[in-house]
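FAQ: What does the model actually see?

It sees only this:
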Amino acid sequence: MEAADVIEALEGLRGPRAVVTAGQVSVYVPAIDDTVRIDVAEVRRYKRIWAPNGDPAVEFVMGDEREVWPLIITPDDVVCRPVDTGAVLDSSIEFRIANAPHIVAYTEMERAAEQAALACEQPEPIELDGAGATLLLVRCSIVAATLAGLRPVRSVAWWQRAWAALGADVPLPPFRADPVWDELMHEASRLTLTASARGEGDGPSAAAGVAVSDFRRLAPRLTAVALDEEFVSCWRASMPLTPTRFVETLLNGLDAARADVALYPGGGGSVDVMLGEGDAQALLELSWSDKAALHVDEVRIADALAHTGLFQRMMFNTERLAAMLGFAQVTILASGAGTYAFAAMGYPRDPELYQAMRYRRDQASVVRMSPTRKDG
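And it is asked to produce this:
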């Protein structure tokens, strides 16, 4: 593959800026303020896809004579495969992390490092095995990012802060010498870290004080069916977030969309999301009777809006909202076989990458931080 092919693949992604330097394509992603470097000789092929949140993305299949691995670039993120624990731990014993993701986004890595640091600094006792597994996964993700040319200094700074808070109590063997890590540590030591906003003003305590006027201000984006004091009372009792956060989450990225919400005294409710008009309309219907499950009752997308990432965006927003509302799961009833086809979601899409990721996952231990000796 030629550098021009990689540049062409990235066309259409708003945000990233690509230039060619010495056989590499350097892609600066302003949203993360970092640059990924693509070795053209390692690119086998690429495919334009939709990210889980509905944004356009490019999935590169990278490879050498031994294996293949993914590199995914979105308008505001870079997704890499974490390295194996053996690449960072100096030990004859192999450590596996149960339920570890097969790929990690740059923003997820940074968020996990920050959350780990803040958790480790709390005065309450912390479960050391779990904390160690988290820090090991974050370090594996950071090292993977550096192999793609990225320099995640903020993630390293948060990681070091968490590590320092735990002292020498983490049940892990020594780390391998890594000059790049040492460079990042030196840069990180000069950073002043500020924790990201957590939205405390939109949580359960704020939701308990909502009033009729809060819903009227959000019209027509949010319409409360039969808005009165009884509706507001139902909201306070069953919805642990403010109407503003509800709208921001459910309609995020859905321009001109509107939602109708109905609540019932027993804790149930329903939401209809409508988008577009005429021959270019989309509909999403949700319902629930309790917090056991949020049901996706119907998704209807007109042909004019198909293949735009709209389905992925709707499902992404629905899953985020379900988590914020405390639902145990999201269910979808697929009916009318042959009539409806659900869009592909998640990474990776390439069949060879999928098989490679599945093989790595199947080889992992099912016990968190459970060491197993290598054969031989």
